[in-house]
């Protein structure tokens, strides 16, 4: 869409629906027009990424974040004994926002505008309920069922992206998602998933839908915004949503329980899993399809199981090995069975300004 047509489009929607029209523009164009320049001046990547980075390097970056995510389960076990879940999530996202502001204050000050604020809210609003619902669901179901049902987002993402971006999932996406789901089931369930779903299971499924919505929103809006600034706003929105939930529902944390060990664990989760993990994830989604990123993120269950074997003495059984093999196979199917064509289409749409 040319800048002239975009201006007319903006004027029509602002006149018709005010703030909602602004969001419509943002979603349709990927970035709202600003006084600072033409719509075509899009900011992609983190810092000054070279344009010739191969897609496999982004895939490796996502897998590295899943190592951090997988290790967090060991740490979170102790953290949540010391602080209620919602309060810790609010603290975690607030600390992450402070860290990003300290590291990238000039960049954020330069890029922060109304478009980034609205886009960050669109990304953060589904992200925070995802974490809250996942943890609430955990109180009403087993950890294995919780992990398995959360992983269903890798099946949801291709079809949500189809609805939003009009990019139809290929047969390889569907096959890879089903392979991945089967692999996560072998890792997490051990035959415990029955035919009926309890309240905890339903809450966990809602969290998976929230995570899938977040990934599609990042895929849609992230390519036209600065990744650091978008992530900064997402952290602030997520912290506010978690705080709004914590105030009426959970008691204040006991200061006596928040010793040096707690703060070390909180910093570990904040720096490695939140600042590093979510920032890398948002950057990568500017360069890979959301469905592929969702599939790569399923490696979190692999590393969570490996850390459980290493630190909690869980036996490495044939079932676990079969689960690892299925998840690895799903990534191979995604990467090499049609993946090149889909990545070419994505690059073409970004280059032509359709995304």
Describe this structure in words.
With 355 residues, this protein is mainly α. The chain has 15 helices and no strands. It has helices at 3-29, 55-82, 85-103, 105-111, 114-138, 143-150, 153-165, 171-188, 199-221, 227-249, 260-284, 290-297, 299-312, 318-336, 339-352. α7 (153-165) packs antiparallel against α12 (290-297).
Give the helices and strands, then pairings.
Layout: H1 3-29, H2 55-82, H3 85-103, H4 105-111, H5 114-138, H6 143-150, H7 153-165, H8 171-188, H9 199-221, H10 227-249, H11 260-284, H12 290-297, H13 299-312, H14 318-336, H15 339-352
Helix pairs in contact: 2-11, 2-13, 3-10, 3-11, 5-9, 5-10, 6-8, 6-9, 7-9, 7-12, 8-14, 10-11
């Amino acid at each position: 869409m040319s800048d002239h047509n975009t201006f007319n489009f903006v004027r029509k929607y602002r006149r018709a629906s005010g703030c909602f029209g602004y969001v419509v523009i943002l979603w349709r164009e990927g970035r709202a027009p600003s006084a600072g320049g033409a719509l075509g001046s899009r900011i992609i990547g983190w810092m000054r990424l070279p344009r010739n980075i191969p897609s496999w390097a982004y895939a490796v970056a996502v897998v590295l974040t899943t190592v951090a995510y997988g290790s967090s389960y060991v740490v979170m076990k102790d953290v949540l004994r010391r602080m209620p879940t919602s309060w810790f999530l609010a603290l975690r996202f607030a600390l992450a926002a402070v860290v990003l502001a300290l590291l990238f204050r000039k960049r954020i000050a330069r890029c922060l505008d109304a478009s980034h604020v609205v886009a960050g809210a669109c990304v953060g609003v589904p992200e925070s309920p995802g974490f809250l619902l996942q943890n609430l669901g955990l109180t009403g179901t087993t950890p294995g069922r919780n992990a398995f049902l959360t992983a269903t987002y890798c099946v949801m993402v291709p079809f949500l992206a189809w609805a939003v971006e009009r990019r139809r999932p290929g047969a390889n996406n569907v096959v890879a998602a089903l392979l991945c789901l089967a692999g996560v089931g072998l890792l997490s369930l051990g035959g415990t998933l029955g035919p009926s779903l309890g309240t905890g299971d339903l809450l966990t499924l809602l969290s998976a839908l929230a995570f899938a919505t977040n990934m599609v929103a990042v895929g849609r809006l992230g390519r036209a915004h600065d990744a650091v600034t978008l992530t900064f706003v997402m952290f602030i929105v997520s912290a506010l949503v978690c705080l709004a939930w914590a105030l009426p529902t959970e008691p204040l944390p006991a200061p006596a329980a928040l010793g040096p060990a707690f703060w070390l664990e909180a910093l570990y989760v904040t720096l490695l899993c939140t600042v590093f993990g979510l920032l890398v994830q948002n950057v990568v989604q500017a360069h890979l399809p959301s469905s592929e990123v969702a599939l790569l993120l399923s490696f979190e269950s692999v590393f969570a199981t490996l850390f459980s074997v290493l630190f909690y003495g869980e036996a490495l059984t044939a079932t676990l090995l079969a689960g690892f093999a299925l998840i690895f196979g799903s990534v191979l199917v995604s990467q090499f069975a049609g993946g090149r064509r889909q990545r070419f289409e994505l690059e073409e749409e970004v280059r032509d300004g359709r995304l």
